[in-house]
Amino acid sequence: MSQTTPTTVGPLTVVLVHGAFADASSWTGVIERLMTQAHQQARSVLTEHRDALDRLAQALLQEEVLEREQVLAILNGGQNTRGGAGS
Questions:
Q1: Is residue 84 exposed (0-12), middle (13-18) or buried (19+ Cβ within 10 Å)?
Q2: Rounded Cα distance, 80 and 63, in Å
Q3: Predicted pLDDT of residue 9
């Protein structure tokens, strides 16, 4: 049994999970929707945790380098203490 190689090159066809056929341009709307949703989710997370992020930014402006324990203490509502949480 011999194998044949296609001799013509044209637009590629993508088979979607639900069985419809479409070229790659049909993904444009999907990509835009996914990017919009990701942007909204990121904005929501940043807004929700704004106070903790502001505390972390202030601590980094003061010390430039923070240990893991310091970051965790700041994010959990504590103040930045040299040498980690509880010091």
A1: middle
A2: 9
A3: 62
Global pTM?
0.52
Q: Select from 69, 29, 74, 33 the least CA-distant residue to 54.
A: 74
Residues of the chain with pLDDT under 50: 83-87
Q: What distance in Å separates the CA atoms of residue 81 and residue 78, rounded to the nearest whole number? A: 9
Cα 31 versus chain centre, distance: 14
Domain residue spans of the chain = 23-75
SS3 track for the chain: CCCCCCCCCCCCCEECCCCCEECHHHHHHHHHHHHHHHHHHHHHHHHHCHHHHHHHHHHHHHHCCCCHHHHHHHHCCCCCCCCCCCC
